[in-house]
Structures are given as C-alpha cells and as structure tokens.
Amino acid sequence: MLILGIETSCDETAAAVINASDHGIEVVSNVVSSQVKLHAEWGGVVPNLAAREHLKNILPVISSSLQEANIVPEQLDLMAVTSGPGLIPALLIGTTAAKTLAYLWKKPLIGIHHIEAHIYANLISGNSDSKEELKFPVLALVVSGGHTQLILMKEHLRYEIVGQTLDDAVGEAFDKVARILDLGYPGGPIVSKYADSFKTDAESKEWLGMRFPRPMFDSKNFDFSFSGLKTAVLYAVKSNPQILSSETLKKEACFQFQEAVIDTLIHKTLGTVEKYGVKTVMLAGGVSANSELRARLGTAIKNRFPNIGYIIPNISYSGDNAAMIAAAAYYRWNSLEDKEALEESWKTLDADANMSLS
Ligand code: KG4
Ligand code: ZN
User: Fold this and answer.
1) Which part of the chain has CATH 3.30.420.40?
2) Ligand 2 center from residue 208 Cα (angstroms)
3) Ligand 1 nearest atom to the CA of residue 290, by list position
4) What is the pLDDT of the chain when averaged over all its residues?
5) At CA 258, angle to CA 257 and CA 261, rounded to 5?
6) The domain 2-124+317-347: what is its CATH number?
C-alpha cells in the first residue's frame, strides 16, 4: 500500500511516500526541508519561527514528495502525520495540512507518535538487520534532541519505558556542549566530528588529560542524567580558558564528553538487555547518526550477547523525516480492526505537544 507521511514536530518540514507490504517497507520518496540555518542564529529552535517556516514549506514539500514518487493523491491508500510530542505551533501546521488534505482527497489518516516513528525507522528496508525476522522482546535505545529512553517492546506497538533521563536528553547535551565550546548549532554533528578527529590527531603535547564523569553509572536503575556531564565540560572550560582558543583542546573536550556519553549509554543498555531477556536492540532518534555510538554499541552487544540482534537506522532515516512516520503508520494500520474510523479522523485528530507513548 502507498502511504504519505508528514512530519513537522520540530525544525524539519518533511513528507515522504512509502510502499509497504508483507515483503517490506520501500521508501519511494523522502523530502526533508531543514530549517537549521534559520535557527542557528538563535542557537536553538524558536517555536514560532519554526511554525512560520513550516507554513511556507508544507504544501511544496508534500507536493514534491508526490512528484518524486511519481504518483497522484488518488493513488494513496493512507496518510499519516506526527501528532506529538513536539512544539505545538510546529505540530499544528503538519496536522492542519494533513487533516485538510485527508478531507479533500477522502483518505484515511493516522496520527503518529514521533518517538514511535523513530523506532519504526529501523524497519524500513535496507537497514542492517531489517530483513531478519524481528525477535521480541525488543529494546529501543531512543536518543534524540528531546528524549533519552530505554523502551522495552514485548510486541509491536506496545511500549514500556524502563529507563529515561532525569534531566537533559543526550542530543540536548551535545547541543549545549557545542555552545559551551563555541562550535555552533546543531551541536551533535559538530561535536561528533571534533571527537572523531581527536583520535586521528597525532599525540599532542597540548592535551590536558581531560576526563568527564559517567553520571548514574552505578545506580541500580536504568535512568540517565546528562546535565552534570554538560556542567563538567563547562567547569573544564572555566578552569582552562585556553580550550576556547585551541582546536586541539576542543577536540579533546568533545572526544572525552562523547566517550562519557557512550560509555553510559552502553552500560545501561546492556544492563537492560540482561534484566529483561531482550532479543533485539534497536537504536533510534537523531543521535543514532553518531558513528562512534553506532559502532561501539554494536561491538559491546556482540561481545556480551552474541545471539541477539542489533538494528540501526539507515543514516537517511536517523534524523527527523517523514518516511519513518509512514512506516509506523503501516504497523498501526495493520493492527487496527476498525479501519473505517480513520476516514473520519480529519474531524478528530489533534496535535498534542505532550503526547505519551502507548
Ligand atoms: O531526532 P532528532 O532529529 O530531533 C528530535 O526529535 O529531537 O534529534 C536531533 C538531535 C540534536 O540534538 C542533534 O544535535 C543530535 O540529534 N544529533 C547528533 C548527531 N546528529 C544529530 N548527536 C550526536 N552525534 C551526531 N552525529
Ligand atoms: Zn526526532
């Protein structure tokens, strides 16, 4: 079936068409219009500016996604839109556009939880293990700008949050560390680039031997805390202001920060796998684009639990996109007994900034 997905929860206006069946989920078109440059000036996403950009871009983006897929709206079997969580002014643009078009085109429409979509991005064809039969329980390590959660799934579309951050999300910590080091916005990709180049640098006499804490490493639960780690980077810079004028020292700070984050994420993930008898681990959310995290988590799992699966999203579907919204909608659609009710959802679907995963 052909599904049109729409995503506007934060700072990407996205629309995509997938062709989904029992044989897999093929992405036919995937259009993402990023507002990164607009928000960079402010050092973070400004909700009302985001909404204005979404409003300007939403129809052209949807229209490009149909054109690139070489289809007309009549051919669609289903529409899907992110209904939450996210920035309310941004979500409203996507849901209003989706509801209006669903009414005009007479198409069923499903509202999708943004984090559920990040998880289902792993099941788009072409991913590492996506062809293998998915073995439950699945554990999703969700690491994005707004969320850091360990989510246990005993079956499709059933979620239990078994661990989460008590303060900053991982992506947020990356962004704040980038700001402390004056590296620009969004921080994740830049910090990770600096961290990677630290390793390839030759031994430097300039290095300070920085080391940052692994917060809540030894706590008995699977919760995280990243705000202290970010503060530790801030204190390192305050005590060693030369960091700000040295590319070498910035690389060292980024590397040591990233190591502390990855060590903690791996430790908690492995503990959860053991406790819950997990058979497949998935990585999800914008920070899943981090190459060191992708590689090190995979190695750690293989070493300690050689028989469990490890799935990571294709880089194209790690950050916010609409193919993942359509992919999640396919599983939701299959699970519904009363599909006809969706014909009327243009009347009832609401954006919900604090939507919970259930
Ligand atoms: O999922 P996402 O695109 O948006 C939200 O739903 O929040 O995640 C965005 C977050 C940002 O904080 C960004 O800095 C981070 O993902 N990110 C990364 C990398 N690429 C993006 N963090 C670390 N390493 C990366 N390579
Ligand atoms: Zn996201």
Assistant:
1) 2-124+317-347, 138-312
2) 35
3) 26
4) 95
5) 90
6) 3.30.420.40
pLDDT tens digits along 235-289: 999 999 999 999 999 999 999 999 999 999 999 999 999 999 999 999 999 999 9
Q: Which atom of ligand 1 is nearest to the CA of 289?
A: 26
Q: Which residue has tokens 């050689």? A: 306
CA angle 300, 304, 309 (to 5 degrees): 75
Distance 94 CA to ligand 2 centre (A): 15
Question: What stretches in the chain show pLDDT beneath 50?
Answer: none
Give yes or no for a contact between 27 and 323, defined as CB atoms under 8 angstroms apart.
yes
Strand, coil or helix: what is 42? coil
Atom of ligand 1 nearest to the CA of 178: 14
Could you name the CATH architecture of 138-312? 2-Layer Sandwich (3.30)
Dist. CA 313–CA 126, nearest whole Å: 9
By the 8 A CB rule, do 182 and 247 touch? no
CA of 285 to the centre of ligand 1 (A): 7
Task: For the sheet with 148-153, list strands across it.
Answer: 160-164, 148-153, 138-143, 280-284, 309-311
**DSSP bridge partners of 283:** 141
How remote is the CA of residue 101 from the centroid of ligand 1, in Å?
30
Supply the pLDDT for residue 146.
94
Closest ligand 1 atom to Cα of 172: 12
Which of 120, 144, 317, 318 gets mutated to test ligand 1 (max ligand atoms within 8 A of its CB)? 144
Ramachandran sector of residue 198 (left: φ over 0; alpha: ψ -120 to 50; beta: rest): alpha
CA distances from 104 to 2, 14, 17, 83, 85 (A): 17, 20, 18, 19, 26
